[in-house]
Specification:
Layout: H1 4-15, E1 22-26, H2 32-40, E2 46-51, H3 60-73, H4 79-88, E3 95-99, H5 102-110, E4 127-132, H6 138-148, E5 152-160, H7 168-179, E6 185-190, E7 193-197
Parallel strand pairs: 1-2, 1-4, 2-3, 4-5
Antiparallel strand pairs: 5-7, 6-7
Bound molecules: S-adenosylmethionine.
The site of S-adenosylmethionine has 18 residues, from α2.
C-alpha cells in the first residue's frame, strides 16, 4: 500500500492534468490510490480503474498479506468496496472500473471506439496519465509496460509504484525499459513512485 508522500504525489500529478484528461490505473485494489488521483483531477477528467479485483499479488511477502486480507473480507471481489469508497468521497462520476486482467483490458481499451475515442485506435495514444501498480512480478511488469506505454500520448506521463522496493521484478522491468529508451525523461520520484514523461 502507498505512503502519504506517494499519495500526495499522485494527487499532484493528477492536478497537473488538463480538465479533459483521460487516466488509466492498473491495480486499484480498494481504491486508495485511485481516490488520490481522482481528488487531483478537474473538469470532465476520468479514470479507467483496471483490476481483476481479486486481490492477487505475486510479490513475495505481499502475496501472503493480500491473500490473507482478501480471504478475511469473505467476498469474491474487492469491486464493491472500491465502488463504495469512491462514491463516499463523491468521486463516483470520475471512475470507470474495468474488471479484467491487465493485458485483456489493454486489448479492450485499445480496441476501436473504446472510451468514446474518435477514430479506430481506441485509447492508444490518447491517455494523459497511466499509473501502474498491478502484478509485481518481473514478467508481468515488463508485459504491462509493453502493453500500456503505447496508450500514453506524447508528453503524457506513465508512473509506477514500488520502484526500488522489495518488488525487485518491478525495479528490473522499469530499469530495462529506461535503458531501452522507452521513456523520454524522469518527471519525478516520491518514495517508491517513479514517473516518466513519454
Ligand atoms: C498493490 S495492489 C494495488 C493498490 C492500489 N494501487 C492502492 O495503492 O491502493 C495490486 C492490485 O493489482 C491487482 N492485480 C494483480 N495482478 C493483476 C492483473 N494481472 N490484472 C489486473 N489486476 C491485477 C490486484 O488484484 C490488486 O488489487
Amino acid at each position: 500500500m502507498g505512503s502519504f508522500p506517494e499519495r500526495g504525489y499522485l494527487f499532484q500529478l493528477a492536478s497537473d492534468l488538463p480538465a479533459s484528461a483521460t487516466v488509466i490505473e492498473v491495480g486499484s485494489w480498494m481504491g486508495a490510490s485511485t481516490c488520490f488521483i481522482a481528488g487531483g483531477l478537474k473538469g470532465a477528467a476520468k479514470i479507467y480503474a483496471v483490476d481483476n479485483f481479486q486481490g492477487l499479488s505475486t510479490c513475495g511477502e505481499d502475496a501472503a498479506w493480500y491473500h490473507r486480507h482478501f480471504q478475511s473480507l469473505g467476498k469474491a471481489s474487492t469491486l464493491e468496496i472500491f465502488q463504495r469508497n469512491f462514491s463516499e468521497l463523491g468521486f463516483a462520476e470520475r471512475a470507470e472500473p474495468v474488471v479484467s486482467d491487465s493485458l485483456a483490458a489493454a486489448k479492450t481499451l485499445g480496441a476501436a471506439g473504446a472510451g468514446g475515442a474518435q477514430g479506430t485506435k481506441g485509447l492508444v495514444g490518447e491517455v494523459d496519465f497511466i499509473f501502474i501498480d498491478g502484478d509485481h512480478s518481473y514478467d508481468a511488469c515488463k508485459a504491462d509496460i509493453a502493453a500500456w506505454a503505447p496508450f500514453v500520448k506524447r508528453g503524457g506521463v506513465i508512473a509506477f509504484h514500488d520502484f526500488g522496493s522489495r518488488a525487485d521484478g518491478v525495479t528490473r522491468a522499469i530499469f530495462e525499459a529506461t535503458k531501452a529508451g522507452r521513456f523520454a525523461e524522469i518527471v519525478g520520484v516520491a518514495n517508491t513512485i517513479i514517473a516518466f514523461r513519454m
